[in-house]
Amino acid sequence: MAGRLLRVGTFLSTGPIGTSEALRRLPATPAVPAQARERCLELLARLEQVEFVHDLNLDRTHIRGGRVYHGELCLNELDLYVWYAQIDRGPGSYHIEALRTLSHDTRVVIAPESFATGVDKFRSHLLLERAGVRVPDTVLLHRGNVAAAEPVLAEWGRALLKPRGGYFGHGVLLIEDYATLRDVADYVTAAAPGAADETLLLERFYDNDLADWVSVTLVGDSVMYGYRKRPSRWAAMPGGTAKVYDATGSGGEVDLCEVPAAHEELALRAQKALGAQIIGFDMILHQGAPIIVDENTFPGLYPEFFRAAGKDLGFELFRVIARAVDECRTSTLAVRHR
């Protein structure tokens, strides 16, 4: 006997959605390249016992009575909603609220809680550390209690001050002494007294060579490839150090590279801990071992790198969705047979 027809909604973005200032600073490139999107949708059309509703843009939804509507369609009545888009990820984000509301009744891929953790450097580092994944030592402070960092800096020597939701290296500052941190905190408080984020995130600085920096991209539960930023994307910091920095946020300036076995093992463990279907991890090499220094919910999905690695992004996205469909079908059958 044929199973029940599953209803699945999708939204694979061709660009950022929303109106926040942060989104306007993102690259204009699509989250999913158009060719990969079309390839994925073509493969999805072959799945049996599934009714797809595509292009369910979160920007065109509203929430009423704890249910998310796209026009007349109630998304909470779907079995599965799959999305991948550059969305507003700041405090009070409507997109995240809509996804969280929807997830009470409908399975959502990418899971909103996993996504919200992935875009917050403190929360993602904390989760990975608790899972035994090597990340930098971190300290989170309230701006009014910056003195608590003085003994930490005395122990560490140097630290990086990072925006919790930052990207492209913007706002990353090398802190070599407590006085600098104190004055930066005072400046931020005076210049932006109403800022929503009252925290300061300090990350221990580890000596490393940017020539060993590697970013690893994963889709599903597999490593797709690794890449390095070219020296044009390095920016000098004090004391002969440097950071990866993209002033214009235009992306690119990358070269495909091998993923050492230790980096691959670390990336797979981190992906499993975060539960993220599409993720990237930036790693440095310190004393011969990799350390994850950044989690990227929107990693570089470079079509030329997929081709060079013998992979097909459209097919990999299809695999993610098809697996979610199978899991939905299995859970639906389990409920019916209780």
| End-to-end gap | 18 Å
**How many domain regions?**
3
How many helices in DSSP terms? 10
Largest sheet: 5 strands, antiparallel
Give the name of the CATH architecture of the largest domain. Answer: 3-Layer(aba) Sandwich
Structural class: alpha+beta
Poorly predicted runs are 333-338
Taking strands numbered 1, 2, ... along the chain, how are they ordered across the largest sheet? 16-13-12-17-18
CATH topology of the largest domain: Rossmann fold
| Fraction of helical residues | 25-40%
Radius of gyration: 21 Å
Keywords: ATP-binding, Nucleotide-binding
Protein name: ATP-grasp domain-containing protein
InterPro entries: ATP-grasp, ATP-grasp_RimK-type
Organism: Streptomyces piniterrae
List keywords for this structure.
single chain, 338 residues, alpha+beta, Rossmann fold, D-amino Acid Aminotransferase, Chain A, domain 1, Dna Ligase, domain 1, 3 domains, five-stranded antiparallel sheet, 32% helix, 26% strand, disordered C terminus
